[in-house]
Specification:
alpha/beta; Rossmann fold; binds nicotinamide-adenine-dinucleotide; binds thymidine-5'-diphosphate
Length: 351
């Protein structure tokens, strides 16, 4: 089996669902179920013996050692993290604990387990660490996109904590020979995305008749990657990536935030027009900028495509249409994630 951490979060859940749709190999899923973890994301796996769920922390070395000894996975894929930049600005502590200390403890547990393996089991073991393009810092409008050789220049507590985790992963390969792989991807979007992030927030606010809060001038640029394309890239790197290597993953879709919000509005105008006939664009509201806001991210994913033959299947247009449709088709999921804790966050961030 494979061992996934953070499999109840946005990307982890999509990865679990795709994996089990394509493979008979079981998955052990360790997730702490923070505000971002949601077992509803995995409701379709209920009763499926191939999904073994354990609630727990990647930093709990005793628990992780027990799970490794019991289930003897051939690979560990680490999605577990605190992932929202704005939350890292309000309260960085959890980011340091999970993203740095947690990853360190997970690496230690994996190293001890790997050292106990022999022969083929030892040769075939992999530790795949899922990271972000934000570790590379911010680009000017005309600078070339990030390659894997770009220096690390993280600018938020979130990206700094992910950068630290990437360095630890690298060092475990260099020092101990642990067979690691690292992926650094751009902004994901798609089903099960928690509505604190740009795209799902805009969809749920638009439908609720609330303002669409665009930070600053809305001209910050991100590369957008459909989550299922990210999942296929991870499967590809897990299967064929060279040990110790880093692979950037991108969607070939650089967009300014305001253009992303316009796309959401245009799709909603078509698929669920407002009753007063006006466009959802009228709800756009420019608000105070995020402190230290990175201006532009862009990914050069040629290494992954040239070495391993991966490329994204979705364009921004096709991925966004699927995403908006998914939110329209799943109002119960949206309602369920908008708990009291979610409302407290929205109040704190956008008051
Ligand atoms: P998410 O916040 O939606 O989910 C994170 C999951 O990890 C949740 O289920 C949460 O309960 C779990 N978790 C948190 N702390 C834990 C701990 N200490 N032990 C065990 N589980 C814990 O995040 P996501 O968007 O799915 O991101 C997954 C990974 O991909 C993260 O490592 C993130 O840094 C990276 N990433 C995300 C994006 C993006 O656009 N969402 C882009 C680049 C990289
Ligand atoms: P986000 O989804 O938080 O991802 P990240 O910060 O990891 O890139 O934000 C994407 C972009 O959208 C980022 O430039 C910040 C901006 N943004 C807004 O303009 N308004 C919002 O309410 C949010 C959440 C983000």
């Amino acid at each position: 089996m494979i061992f996934v951490t953070g499999g109840a979060g946005f990307i982890g859940a999509n990865f679990m669902l795709d994996w089990l749709a394509q493979s008979s190999e079981p998955v052990l899923n360790l997730d702490k179920l923070t505000y971002a973890g949601n077992l509803q994301n995995l409701a379709s796996l209920q009763g499926d013996a191939r999904h073994v769920f354990v609630r727990g922390d990647i930093g709990d070395a005793t628990l992780v050692a027990e799970l490794l000894a019991k289930h003897r996975p051939r690979a560990l894929v680490n999605f577990a993290a605190e992932s929202h930049v704005d939350r890292s600005i309000h309260a960085p502590e959890d980011f340091i604990q999970t993203n740095i200390v947690g990853t360190f403890r997970l690496l230690e547990s994996a190293r001890l387990y790997w050292a106990s393996l022999q022969g083929k089991d030892r040769d075939n073991f992999r530790f795949l660490h899922v990271s972000t393009d934000e570790v590379y810092g911010s680009l000017t409008p005309t600078a070339p996109a990030f390659t894997e050789l770009h220096r690390y220049e993280p600018n938020s507590p979130y990206s700094a904590s992910k950068a630290a985790s990437d360095h630890l992963v690298r060092s475990y390969h260099h020092t101990y020979g642990l067979p690691v792989l690292t992926t650094n991807c751009s902004n994901n979007y798609g089903p099960y995305h928690f509505p604190e992030k740009l795209i799902p927030l805009m969809i749920v606010n638009a439908l609720a008749g609330k303002p669409l809060p665009v930070y600053g001038d809305g001209q910050q640029v991100r590369d957008w990657l459909f989550v299922k394309d990210h999942c296929s890239a991870i499967r590809c790197v897990l299967q064929s990536g060279r040990l110790g290597e880093v692979y950037n993953v991108g969607g070939n879709s650089e967009k300014a935030n305001l253009d992303v919000v316009h796309t959401v509005c245009t799709l909603l105008d078509e698929l669920r027009p407002r009753s007063d006939g006006q466009s959802y664009r009228t709800q756009i509201s420019f608000v105070k900028d995020r402190p230290g806001h990175d201006r532009r991210y862009a990914i050069d994913a040629r290494k992954l495509s040239q070495e391993l033959g991966w490329s994204p299947a979705q364009t921004f247009e096709s991925g966004m249409r699927q995403t908006v449709r998914w939110y329209l088709d799943n109002p119960e999921w949206v309602q369920q994630v908008q708990s009291g804790a979610y409302r407290d966050w929205v109040q704190k961030q956008y008051a």
